[in-house]
Amino acid sequence: MGVEGCTKCIKYLLFVFNFIFWLAGGIILGVALWLRHDSQTTNILYLQLGDKQAPNTFYVGIYILIAVGAVMMFVGFLGCYGAIQESQCLLGTFFTCLVILFACEVAAGIWGFVNKDQIAKDVKQFYDQAFQQALMADAETNNGKTVVKTFHETLDCCGPDNAIGAFTPLWREDLCPKKDSFLKNLIEPSSCHRKIDELFSGKLYLIGIAAIVVAVIMIFEMILSMVLCCGIRNSSVY
């Protein structure tokens, strides 16, 4: 005997929420793959300065997002199927998966909040080391110049946040993107530190919004799945 009345409405409401959850999982997976293969981040984070690789903390977060998106699509499908079949077993499994996924999202959110400034800081330190090597007399013996030029061309910037960085475009045209005029170099100084902050803060802001939306959907789904499960149990008594 199927559920009736308000419980039936909850059944279809849960199905709709699960379908949205499945779509959100697909969107998160797609965004994570885009961030993983975005030309700006890949150009920078694949660089190598001598034996030192560019910081990969950002990619750790991206791989977590890819896993979360894939799991969300599976859990969303499980919830849709469980709601339509009115299966207490599937709904119980779905609820358990949601609790685990929610706990993982909270843990990932805490990790991301703690490391949000560290990601840009590590990349800026890597850039500063390359910049110092590029200015050395024996710059040709290391790849510092190549690394710095990649930063400058990818982010359209030149130099760090200091006096040397401010005047670098004027005396090291071999390192900096060419501006249209000498005056433009003075009027529009473009610090690479600021550009690095903008690059990662913008992407982390996008990830944060997605995480909040998904968390709200998961809370509603946990409530609805428990209510539907209780409704199915009560309807089977009569």
From TrEMBL:
> What InterPro entries does the annotation carry?
Tetraspanin/Peripherin, Tetraspanin_animals, Tetraspanin_CS, Tetraspanin_EC2_sf
The UniProt record lists the keyword Disulfide bond: yes
The cysteines joined by S-S bonds are 157-192, 158-176
- Name by which UniProt lists this protein: Tetraspanin
Q: Which gene underlies this protein? A: Cd81
Family under the similarity heading: Belongs to the tetraspanin (TM4SF) family.
PROSITE patterns named in the record: TM4_1
Q: Which UniProt keywords apply?
A: Adaptive immunity, Cell membrane, Disulfide bond, Immunity, Lipid-binding, Membrane, Transmembrane, Transmembrane helix
Plastid is among the record's keywords = no
CDD domains reported in the protein's UniProt record: CD81_like_LEL
| Molecular function as annotated in GO | lipid binding
Where does this polypeptide localize?
Basolateral cell membrane; Membrane
Membrane-spanning regions, if any?
A: 12-35, 56-84, 90-114, 204-228
